[in-house]
Specification:
GTPase that plays an essential role in the late steps of ribosome biogenesis. Belongs to the TRAFAC class TrmE-Era-EngA-EngB-Septin-like GTPase superfamily. EngA (Der) GTPase family. Keywords: GTP-binding, Nucleotide-binding, Repeat, Ribosome biogenesis. GO terms for molecular function: GTP binding; ribosome binding. By secondary structure, this protein is α/β, with parallel strands linked by helices. The protein folds into three domains: 159 residues, P-loop containing nucleotide triphosphate hydrolases (Rossmann fold), CATH 3.40.50; 174 residues, Rossmann fold, CATH 3.40.50.300; 79 residues, GMP Synthetase, Chain A, domain 3, CATH 3.30.300.20. Helix content is 35%, strand content 20%. It is built from twelve helices and 15 strands. A six-stranded mixed sheet has the order 2-3-1-4-5-6, with helices on both faces. A six-stranded mixed sheet has the order 8-9-7-10-11-12, sandwiched between helices. Strands 13-14-15 form a three-stranded mixed sheet. α2 packs parallel to α3 and α11 packs across α12. The longest helix is centred in the first third of the chain and has 18 residues. The chain starts with a strand and ends with a strand. Bound molecules: guanosine-5'-diphosphate (2 copies). One guanosine-5'-diphosphate binds next to α6. The site of one guanosine-5'-diphosphate has 15 residues, from α6.
C-alpha cells in the first residue's frame, strides 16, 4: 500500500507552508536544476525511515470560502478516499471558524485517521488556544508551527504509526512490479495494450467507490512481470477541477506500488517540466527507472538525432545521469522488447547486493588515491563500507568525521560504486557514520 498523507483545510491556515516543511529536504536535489516548476502540490517526505507521499489538496482547489458545497467538499472526499492519513490544518490565530466546522463534519464521517493540526502556534497563548479545536470532534489537536517546524516531530511520530513497516509488501516475491507513467497522451494506454495484448476497458465515469492499484501478472515479450495499474481509481461524475488531482494520485499510487517505473515521454514534445516532476518523484521514491521516449516514428531525424536528444536530456536531469533512455515507437512496435528487457535489468540492479569484501576491494584504493578533502584542518578517514540489506541500494561509509563530508565527495563515491558495480537505472543512497 502506498503511504499517502493528505493535507486538508480551509484557505490560509498554512497548508502549503506545512507541505513545504514536510517535503523540503527531499525536493532540494532536482528542483534547483533544470527549471522544475515549484508550484506542485505533491512531494516526498521521510520520517525515521518511513517514507511517504504528501499531497497539499489546497493546491487543487480554486475559489473562495463560500464554495464549500462545491469544490472543497469534493477535495475533502477525494482526500478521505485516497489518503492513508489526513492532516486537518486549522489556525490558532483565528480559532475555529464555520468553515472549519464544515470540514470537520465531513472528516468525522471518514474511517481514516484524522489529525487536527493547530497551526501557527509559535506563542504560548496560541498553544493554549489549540485546545479550542477539540470542539471539532476529531480528538486532541496537535499544536505546531509550520513556519518554525516546532511540534511537527510529535505529529509525525503519530502519523507514521499508520504506515505498514516496510512500505509495500511483495506478495509474488521476485517478480518485478512495473508501473507505466507519463503525462497524458504520451502513449501509456497504447503501450499497455501492446503489452497485455488486449484492449483494456476504458475507465468510465461511474460515481462511487474507488479502488487501489491493481496488480496483474503478465507474460509478454518473454518476460514475466506484474503491471501495477491504477485504472480502478475512477473519476467521479461532475469532477472537472480535480482531473489533475486524479491523474497525480494515480501515478503516485502506481509508482509507490512498483519496483520499476517506465516513464514515457513524447518524442514530438521533448522533455517538459511535468516529465521532470515525474522523474524526480520516482528517483526520490528510490524506484528503478527506465525512460522510454515514445513516438520516435513521428520525429524527423537523421543518425545524430538520438544522440543529441540524449545529451540534452542528461544535461537537464543532471546530476542524475544513470537512467537508461530508450527511443521507441509503440505504433511500430519498435524497441518494445528492449524497454521490457531494460526494465528487468533495472529490477535486478535494484536488488543487487555487493559483498562487503568486494566493495572494500574496489573502493579502498580509490579512496586512498582521492581521500575526502580535509575540513577545518582535520583529516577525514574513511575506514570501510558496506551495503545495507534495504529494498533499494544503500551504502554506509564508516569514518571518523562523517559531518565533514560534503556533497561533491558523496557524488564521487556514488559514481565509483556505479563504475564498479553498474547500478544502471537505480537511485543509490549513501550514509556516513561515525566509527
Ligand atoms: P494555505 O492557504 O492553507 O495553503 O496557507 P499558506 O501556507 O499559504 O499560509 C497562509 C498564511 O499563513 C501565509 O501568510 C503564511 O505565511 C502563514 N503561515 C503559515 N504557517 C504559519 C505558521 O506556522 N505560523 C505563522 N505565524 N504563520 C503561518
Ligand atoms: P495515454 O494518454 O498516455 O494513455 O496515451 P494514448 O495511448 O491514449 O495515446 C495518445 C495518442 O498518441 C494516441 O492518439 C495514440 O495513437 C498516439 N500514439 C501512441 N503511441 C504512439 C507512437 O508510438 N507513435 C505515434 N506517432 N503516436 C502514438
Amino acid at each position: 500500500m502506498a503511504n499517502i498523507v493528505a493535507i486538508v483545510g480551509r484557505p490560509n491556515v498554512g497548508k502549503s507552508t506545512l507541505f513545504n516543511r514536510l517535503t523540503e529536504q527531499r525536493q532540494a536535489i532536482m528542483d534547483n536544476q533544470s527549471g522544475v516548476t515549484r508550484d506542485r502540490h505533491y512531494g516526498y517526505a521521510e520520517w525515521t525511515d518511513k517514507r511517504f507521499t504528501v499531497i497539499d489538496t489546497g493546491g487543487y482547489v480554486v475559489g473562495s470560502e463560500d464554495i464549500f458545497e462545491g469544490a472543497i467538499r469534493e477535495q475533502v472526499e477525494i482526500a478521505i478516499e485516497e489518503a492513508t492519513v489526513l492532516l486537518f490544518v486549522v489556525d490558532t490565530m483565528t480559532g475555529p471558524t464555520g468553515l472549519d466546522h464544515d470540514f470537520a463534519k465531513v472528516l468525522r464521517r471518514s474511517k481514516k485517521p484524522v489529525y487536527v493540526v493547530a497551526n501557527k502556534a509559535e506563542t504560548f497563548e496560541r498553544q493554549q488556544a489549540a485546545s479550542e479545536f477539540y470542539a471539532l470532534g476529531l480528538g486532541d489537536p496537535f499544536p505546531i508551527s509550520s513556519q518554525t517546524g516546532s511540534g511537527t516531530g510529535d505529529l509525525l511520530d503519530e502519523v507514521i504509526k499508520h504506515f505498514p513497516n516496510e512500505g509495500v509488501e511483495d506478495p509474488e516475491g521476485g517478480i518485478p512490479r512495473i508501473a507505466i507513467l507519463g503525462r497524458p497522451n504520451v502513449g501509456k494506454s497504447s503501450f499497455l495494450n501492446v503489452l497485455t495484448g488486449k484492449e483494456r476497458s476504458i475507465v468510465t465515469d461511474i460515481a462511487g467507490t474507488t479502488r487501489d492499484a491493481i496488480n496483474t501478472r503478465y507474460k509478454a515479450y518473454g518476460k514475466d512481470f506484474i503491471l501495477t495499474d491504477t485504472a480502478g481509481i475512477r473519476r467521479k461524475a461532475r469532477i472537472s477541477d480535480n482531473i489533475e488531482f486524479y491523474s497525480v494520485l494515480r501515478s503516485i499510487k502506481a509508482m509507490e506500488e512498483s519496483d520499476v517505473c517506465i516513464i514515457m515521454l513524447d518524442a514530438t514534445r521533448g522533455l517538459e517540466a511535468q516529465d521532470m516532476n515525474i522523474i524526480g518523484q520516482a528517483v526520490r521514491a528510490k524506484k528503478g527507472v527506465v525512460i522510454m521516449i515514445n513516438k520516435w516514428d513521428a520525429v524527423e531525424k537523421d543518425h545524430r538525432t538520438a544522440d543529441v536528444l540524449r545529451k540534452e536530456m542528461l544535461q537537464r536531469m543532471a546530476p542524475i545521469d544513470y537512467l537508461p533512455i530508450i527511443f521507441a515507437s509503440v505504433h511500430e512496435k519498435q524497441r518494445i522488447f528492449q524497454v521490457m528487457e531494460k526494465a528487468m535489468e533495472v529490477y535486478e540492479n535494484k536488488h543487487k547486493k555487493i559483498t562487503t569484501s568486494k566493495l572494500n576491494e574496489a573502493l579502498q584504493p580509490v579512496i586512498e588515491a582521492y581521500p575526502p578533502p580535509a575540513t577545518k584542518g582535520k583529516q577525514i578517514k574513511i575506514k570501510y563500507m558496506l551495503q545495507l540489506p534495504t529494498p533499494s541500494p544503500t551504502f554506509v561509509f564508516f569514518c571518523n568525521l562523517p559531518q565533514y563530508i560534503k556533497e561533491p565527495y558523496e557524488r564521487f563515491l556514488e559514481n565509483k560504486i556505479r563504475e564498479n558495480f553498474g547500478f544502471d537505472g537505480v537511485p543509490i543512497t549513501i550514509f556516513f557514520r561515525q566509527k
